[in-house]
Amino acid sequence: MTPADALSLATFIALIMLALALLLSTVRIIIGPTLADRVLALDLMTVVAMGFVGTAAIRTGLMLYLDIAIALALLGFVATIALARYILSRVTSEGPQ
Q1: What is the value of pTM for the model shown?
Q2: How many other C-beta atoms lie within 10 A of the C-beta of residue 11?
Q3: Domains contained in the chain, number
Q4: What is the dihedral of CA 13, 19, 21, 25, to 10 degrees?
Q5: Residue 24 belongs to domain spanning
């Protein structure tokens, strides 16, 4: 097995594992009992998408994909902060239970 074949096999296995993680996080979004679970699963989906983009960068050799991964990370961070603020405002408006 040549190094190129090993790299191709490793990236293929990584894509399968990332697809499984994406499927499981989708299930968590659908059946998540709380809003916080859904936000966490959405954050995980962002990280998995970054993994897909990084794996695509390795497979193709185009480093432009890494810029896309950085933009996804920034977008995921901002979305998580916004959703956390929404959850906090929702809890404070309902009052203590």
Answers
A1: 0.84
A2: 17
A3: 1
A4: 180
A5: 3-94
